[in-house]
Amino acid sequence: MKYTELKISSDNFPEETAPVTSPAAPAPGAVRPSSSDAASRAAAYVPGVSVSPEPERGDDGDAPGASSAAVPSEQSASCSRYPKKIAIITGASSGLGQEFVRQIDADPEESFDEIWVIARRRERLEALQEGVRVPIRAIPLDLTLPDSIDQISSLLAEENPFAGLLINAAGFGKIGSYQDISRDDIDRMIDLNCRAAVDMTQAVLPFMGSGSRILEICSTAGFQPFQYLNVYAATKAFLYRYSRALRMEVMPRGISVTAVCPYWITDTEFIGTARKTQDSTYIRHFPFSTKRGSVVSHALYDSRAGFAVSTPGVVCTLHRFFSKICPDTVMMGIWDLIRRI
Ligand SMILES: NC(=O)c1ccc[n+]([C@@H]2O[C@H](COP(=O)([O-])OP(=O)(O)OC[C@H]3O[C@@H](n4cnc5c(N)ncnc54)[C@H](OP(=O)(O)O)[C@@H]3O)[C@@H](O)[C@H]2O)c1
After folding, report:
1. d(Cα 186, Cα 150) in Å, to the nearest integer?
2. In angstroms, rounded to a whole number, what is the distance separating the alpha carbons of residues 168 and 165?
3. For 140-152, how does the pLDDT look when each residue is reduced to its tens digit (9 = 90+)?
4. Are 63 and 71 in contact (CB under 8 A)?
5. Which residue has the higher pLDDT, 8 or 19?
6. What is the per-residue pLDDT for 131?
7. Whose CA is closest to 231, among 187, 275, 289?
8. How many whole angstroms separate alpha carbon 290 and alpha carbon 48?
9. pLDDT tens-digit map of 156-187
């Protein structure tokens, strides 16, 4: 059976790879598998392929005590040195994340040994294997729990893959005034859309190298302040800014970062979730909305082309342009008209 599932339990994270407390499972963003472990893992995961002991991979700073000869810079990391090449997609149980899995599997320009998919609904993740060729590894996790990132870090440290692609698509929004959205929803929105996306990126970056790509799914909502979507829009502005700056930092390593900024998409669960508040009537309709298929194909094309920002569609492209030349007050005035249509 092609499908492999990670059961999140202590069994899956043996003592030597247990999160944080174990020497072999460093804190998120500081994963540093040892050379002998990497070699033995390579032999274990790729039958018939012998991998000679390789030097430890460094991140921005060398490990204390590690000689520079033994720790090559991350710029030189290349896929061929690792046992397998993977793509990691969060929010893969529905909407854009699910569509990314399908299109990546079907696209001859995208080639991975495994796709790791993350979201809370296990059965949805498991069902992804049907109809796709690439082995799917289902990792059911709630990314608003900080422990979840530790579990991803431990798994990465244990398997030492080459991460060719990371797509942070997990996210949600809520429509309403400041008094219509519960504090719990507000906190989870900030946690998932901002903290979890950054933590996932930090955790995966040490496993990336030349040719790796990151897609942060932001939103056209990040281009300006939006009344009645105020927290959601602010989280996307955060992710957009983070993506743009990170791109410059990782460019010398040959890694690209693309901030994907779609307009409304109607064939995902996003709008239904966003409407579940005390009062979501502030936004009446979603005119000029797009479909997830075209958003995903556009985003993958832009990422392969190395673009910093992907605006998949005419509306979000125009929105980006006008948000650069018009003051926020003008943009919010226009939004006040559009949201009443
Ligand atoms: N649809 C739009 O109009 C639109 C427009 C612009 C940008 N976006 C952005 O696009 C991204 C994808 O949205 P979508 O339209 O595909 O919506 P969606 O169909 O609701 O997908 C959201 C995904 O996030 C996952 N998720 C939610 N909470 C999670 C948690 N705590 N831990 C882990 N995963 C969690 C969901 O899976 P589980 O429920 O199984 O956990 C689901 O797979 C979001 O970041 C959204 O902000 C959407």
Report:
1. 23
2. 10
3. 999 999 899 999 9
4. yes
5. 8
6. 85
7. 187
8. 46
9. 999 999 999 999 999 999 999 999 999 999 99
Residue 81's pLDDT is what?
67
Nearest-angstrom CA–CA distance, 141 and 116: 12
282 in catalytic set: no
12 within some domain: no
Residue 247: give its domain's CATH number: 3.40.50.720
* Spatial CB neighbours of 50, under 8 Å, sequence gap ≥ 6: 43
Distance between CA atoms of 43 and 34, rounded to whole angstroms? 14
User: Which pLDDT belongs to residue 55?
Assistant: 32
Q: Which residues span the domain enclosing 179?
A: 80-338
The residue-averaged pLDDT of 20-41 equals 34
Query: In whole angstroms, what is the distance from residue 336 CA to residue 148 CA?
Result: 39
Q: Tell me the best of 103, 136, 194, 269 to mutate to test the pocket of ligand 1, counting ligand atoms within 8 Å of each CB and taking the most.
A: 269
Q: Which residues line ligand 1 (CB under 6 A)?
A: 91-97, 119-121, 124, 142-144, 169-173, 192, 217, 219, 262, 264-265, 268-271, 273
Cα 269 to its chain centre, rounded Å, is 18
Domain membership flag for residue 219: yes
Of ligand 1's listed atoms, the one at least distance from the Cα of 170 is 24
- What is the gyration radius of the CA atoms in the chain, in angstroms? 20
* Residue 306 counted as domain residue: yes
Across residues 26-35, what is the average pLDDT? 35
Mean pLDDT throughout 10-29?
33
User: Which among 90, 87, 71 is positioned nearest to 79, based on CA atoms?
Assistant: 87
Measured at the CA of 171, the angle between CA 6 and CA 286, to 5 degrees, comes to 140
> What's the pTM value of the predicted model, to 2 decimals?
0.82
Q: Which of 232, 240, 242, 263 is catalytic?
A: 232
Query: Number of folded domains in the chain?
Result: 1
Number of residues that make up the chain? 341
Is the CB of residue 26 less than 8 Å from the CB of residue 19?
no
User: Does a structural domain hold residue 22?
Assistant: no
Please write the tens of the pLDDT for every residue from 192-233.
999 999 999 999 999 999 999 999 999 999 999 999 999 999
